[in-house]
Amino acid sequence: MKKKKIEQVRSFKYLGSTVNTDSTIEEEIKERIALGNRAFFANKKIFQSKLISKNAKLKLYFSIIRPVVTCACETWILKETITNRLMFLKGKF
Fold first, then answer.
1. CA nearest to 88, candidates 42, 47, 29
2. What are the residue ranges spanned by the domains of the chain?
3. Which residues sit opposite 13 in a β-bridge?
4. Across all residues in the chain, what is the average pLDDT?
5. pTM
6. Do the Cβ atoms of 60 and 46 come closer than 8 Å?
7. How confident is the model at residue 45 (pLDDT cuts 50, 70, 90)?
8. Percentage of residues in the chain with pLDDT exceeding 70?
9. Could you please report the per-residue DSSP string of 29-90?
């Protein structure tokens, strides 16, 4: 076998989650919040429509946006600043 040099990186994606050398989760949560915002703005017309009931919008939120943000959240260690950002995102809906 040839000897190959393995590149060392600060962070990488593994099974949809970001793994980094600092063992911090802030980068992952920021990315999840950005993905949740992207999912919201992709469906913005639906959420702003007056023809769709609030109950239907809540079902959409719980089935489309919330899973995007909370995927793998069981492993998160939350700090107060991160908790505030997540609560702010929840308040948007």
1. 29
2. 25-91
3. 18
4. 83
5. 0.68
6. yes
7. very high
8. 96
9. HHHHHHHHHHHHHHTHHHHH-SSS-HHHHHHHIIIIIHHHHHTTGGG----HHHHHHHHHHH
In a 3-state reduction of DSSP, which class is residue 18? Answer: strand
Contact between 68 and 36 (Cβ < 8 Å): yes
> Residue 59: what are its φ and ψ, rounded to 5°?
-65, -40
Highest mean pLDDT (candidates 8-17, 34-43, 78-87): 34-43
Residue type, 23: S
- In this predicted model, which residue has the larger pLDDT, 93 or 2? 2
Which residue type sits at 77? I
